[in-house]
Design brief:
This protein folds into 2 domains: 97 residues, no CATH class; 133 residues, no CATH class. The chain is built from 10 helices and no strands. 32% of the residues are buried. The mean pLDDT is 88.
């Protein structure tokens, strides 16, 4: 039974991943999520039939090509579907059926949409950040109560403010934009999710993960701009799923010292 539930959760992840591909592709371009109702081939605008939209399977059956114009379909699409399926499955294995599972799914969904939008267009749509933040806060109110949720919201505002001030200082020093507005707003979500200490630690982890990509980017094409949002959210995923508590770690280390 447990294996069957895991398979169903994974399949749900694949389906949602397909939708997140649409969200991340359309919103930064100002396109509607409703019209056209179905997905289209970006090369010939062929509106895909239902059998061309089966996550992963359609890509394999069609051998990665559009059925009409035979143009190659980016491997990015099935990889995003697979990533979402795996994240949903990991969330279920970690938390089971619980409020923490819902929060983890919200976090992972936000991460996937940001990977698509920030990875493709270096942009994190405000609609996505606002929607996921509202869903997170509503879930926390039902789970933790209004008082604890208010504390987390204050942490989110504090983290937003800290990164905003840091951005202004870096912009002044380097005389150019160092962080995008979407990255700053994203930290409100992370603060509401993790609280202030863990939220700050997620920034550290995200920066650490982004460093080798930034170095590679500079060496390969002399550009030091990378999509930072996915790294910030992946840092949050690691902390939340691994249940890392920075304050507890610091206290434990202080006892050893």
């Amino acid at each position: 039974m447990e294996i069957l539930i895991s398979i169903v959760i994974f399949i749900y992840g694949l389906v949602f991943g397909s939708f997140y591909n649409v969200v991340g592709y359309r919103l930064p371009k100002g396109m509607s999520l409703i019209k056209p109702r179905g997905s289209i081939c970006p090369n010939c605008n062929h509106e895909l039939k239902w059998y061309e939209l089966i996550p992963l399977l359609s890509f394999i059956i069609q051998r990665g090509k559009c059925t009409k114009c035979k143009c190659k379909i980016s491997l990015f699409y099935p990889l995003i579907e697979l990533l979402t399926g795996l994240l949903f499955l990991i969330s279920y294995i970690t938390f089971g059926f619980s409020t923490e599972l819902i929060i983890s799914l919200i976090l992972c969904s936000y991460f996937v949409m940001v990977v698509v939008s920030d990875g493709r267009y270096m942009e994190i749509p405000d609609e996505v950040t606002l929607t996921m933040s509202i869903l997170l806060i509503l879930t926390e109110v039902l789970s933790y109560g209004p008082v604890e949720t208010l504390k987390l919201i204050v942490s989110g505002l504090a983290l937003f403010g800290i990164l905003f001030i840091f951005m202004k200082i870096c912009n002044f020093i380097f005389k150019k934009e160092t962080l995008g507005g979407g990255d700053i707003k994203l930290e409100f979500f992370n603060g509401c999710l993790l609280g202030l200490p863990n939220g700050l630690f997620s920034i550290f982890i995200g920066s650490l993960l982004a460093l080798p990509f930034s170095i590679f980017n500079i060496k390969s094409n002399n550009k030091n701009i990378i999509p930072f949002g996915p790294f910030l959210l992946f840092g949050a995923i690691l902390i939340y799923i691994l249940k890392i508590d920075v304050v507890k770690i610091i206290n434990d280390l202080s006892y050893l010292i």
